[in-house]
Design brief:
This protein has 158 residues and is mainly beta. The chain has one domain: Jelly Rolls (Sandwich), CATH 2.60.120. Helices cover 7% and strands 43% of the residues. The chain contains 1 helix and 10 strands. The strands form 2 sheets. Strands 1, 2, 3, 5, 7, 8, 9 and 10 form an 8-stranded antiparallel beta sheet that branches. Strand 2 and strand 3 form a beta hairpin. The longest helix has 11 residues. It is globular, with a radius of gyration of 15 Å.
Length: 158
């Protein structure tokens, strides 16, 4: 898991993650201040984005999730949410893998870390990063966010 301010992407020297990540960051930076919710195709190689708005709540109301085919670049446009993180291997499965949705839920377990994604912040989750979003922060009860789904095959993680 990687997190930070999107404005610090270059300073954090994250470009070696690959062209798909650079394209995702450029797309996020091109968004209007209040983007419309929905799914956006970024290219024909499987890179796409979801613009989502939802209310947040207590951690017990959310589930840890992982993905196999995609990494998530999650960026907060407005509002804020906390996101718990744990190594995938530390959590038991909670159901079967849904290949169509590229989604596997995990039973609640200890969070190894928590990030607060407020406006302008991002977090990046690879398939080994279990993450539990939608957790309410002290100052915000809702969030408008972008999740760019980056095919794992397009990452440079070596």
């Amino acid at each position: 898991m990687i997190c930070g301010k999107l404005s610090d992407f270059e300073t954090m020297r994250l470009a070696p993650l690959g062209g798909a990540v650079i394209q995702a960051v450029a797309w996020i930076r091109s968004l209007p201040a209040n983007p419309k919710e929905g799914r956006y195709t970024l290219n024909e190689d499987g890179l796409y984005a979801l613009v989502l708005s939802y209310d947040t709540g207590p951690a017990r109301s959310s589930r840890f999730e992982t993905h196999r085919k995609y990494a998530d670049l999650q960026y907060t446009v407005s509002g804020a949410e906390s996101i718990d993180w744990a190594p995938r291997e530390s959590l038991a499965f909670d159901g079967d893998y849904d290949a169509e949705k590229d989604l596997l839920f995990h039973r609640a377990g200890p969070a190894f870390g928590r990030v607060v994604n407020a406006a302008g912040f991002f977090s990046f989750y690879t398939p080994v990063d279990a993450h539990r979003p939608k957790i309410r922060t002290t100052d915000h009860t809702s969030v408008l966010k972008v999740v760019v789904k980056i095919p794992v095959a397009r990452l440079s993680l070596a």
